[in-house]
Amino acid sequence: MRPVYVSATVQDSGKTSVSLGLMQVLQEQGLNPGYIKPVGQHYVRYHDTNVDEDAVLIHQVFNLLERPYCLSPIAIERGFTTKFIFNPDVAPLEKAILDCVDELGETHSMLIVEGTGHAGVGSCFSLSNARVAELVGGRVVIVTGGGVGRPIDEIAVSLALFEKHDVEVVGVVLNKVLPAKYEKIQKTVSRGLENLDTTLLGAIPYEPSLTHFTVGQLAEEFRYRVLWGEDNLSNRIEKTVVAAMEPEHVVEYIEGNTLLIVPGDRLDNILVAVIVMAQEFASDGGIILTGGIEPHPTIARLMEETGIPVLISDDDTFKVSSRMSDLGFKIRTFDTDKISTLHSLVRDYVDTDRILAALQDDA
CA 189, CA 151: separation in Å to the nearest integer? Predict the structure, then answer.
């Protein structure tokens, strides 16, 4: 069976989410899929080697026994591209990929190959997504964001490059489609893709819960100091409120799983927030104090006793709140609810049978 190569039109389209969901669906169908991300741009140190963070996630979630290196043979370290440009020898890179594909093939009946961005990403070191798909003999599924004009335009560009490398594109998965426009977008894009001689394999609706993050992830990402509530850093955030208004108005905006951003010297708003969050919402959500100002010890004791996770930043309120727009935290191993959701979304909205049929050697 040919590998399925999961590509995308732009960064953060949802390649990893679709790959993770597809892995679960294929396992559910009795298959034994392996996984590789041949070229990784965002790596971490894992098992004494540099491994793409998406490959680490897959390795941990599915308890894979293979060497993590084989899930991520090429990690684009600092200076990698410049070094290649002045010494353009792609042969050892291609060999590393093929060696890992062969090794994974010894224990898996099929392979999910996750790309890096759109079809042309990696061209600067002769390993574009299109070339890697060609190298591993894969057939491509393109993941793109929900919409009409822009996704179709971007898909057309990707199709041209895959065609240049004689790589078959099975079809397209639309991701994050707004429910209110779902039927219209699905119908229109399906027809638009037919005009490009390709197929809509599925349209995954936008699921807000996949965008929710934890207080602990905020602290880690922006290096905020944790004052209290370490045991509740796993609290998920669904709504963010900047509490710079009068206290009586702050109360109106506090709901379950709310993150409150409040100047450290607004003791009135801090007190109101702590009381409401502790009494009405079981200390879920969290608080970020700005300006590097810690509350008076009397108030500090009250905050600590509630168990509400409280972070502090030396930055001002505007800067802290500005960081909250378009946050995109990657799924972690502990996000079992999100992983389960991805399973359901791919199973219910993607034509995996059609994908599998296209991966047969005689397809």
Answer: 9
Environment class of 47 (CB within 10 Å of its CB; exposed 0-12, middle 13-18, buried 19+): exposed
**Do the beta carbons of residue 204 and residue 346 sit within 8 Å?**
yes
Under 8 Å between Cβ of 124 and 41: no
Q: Residues 54-86: pLDDT tens digits?
A: 999 999 999 999 999 999 999 998 899 999 999
**Is the pLDDT assigned to residue 15 strictly greater than 60?**
yes
Residue 363, pLDDT > 60, answer no
Residue 323 DSSP SS3: coil
Q: How far is residue 132 from each of residues 90, 110, 122, 198, measured CA to CA in Å?
A: 11, 17, 9, 21
Please write the tens of the pLDDT for every residue from 106-149. Answer: 999 999 999 988 889 999 999 999 999 999 999 999 999 888 89
Domain range enclosing 14: 4-206+331-358
Phi then psi dihedrals of residue 212, to 5 deg: -70, 145
List the beta strands (DSSP E) in 138-255: 139-145, 169-177, 200-205, 213-214, 225-228, 236-237, 239-242
- Using CA atoms, how far residue 84 sits from 113, 127, 230, 318, in Å, is 23, 11, 45, 42
Residue type, 39: V
pLDDT at 154: 93
Q: Residue 218: inside a domain, yes or no? A: yes
Task: Read off the CATH number of the domain in which 246 is found.
Answer: 3.40.1390.20
Q: Are residues 17 and 96 in the same domain?
A: yes
CB contact set of 28 (below 8 Å; sequence gap of 6+): 343, 347
For residue 117, give the nearest of 99, 133, 135 by alpha carbon: 133
Tens of pLDDT, residues 212-249: 999 999 999 999 999 999 999 999 999 999 998 888 88
Cα separation, 170 vs 204, in Å, equals 17
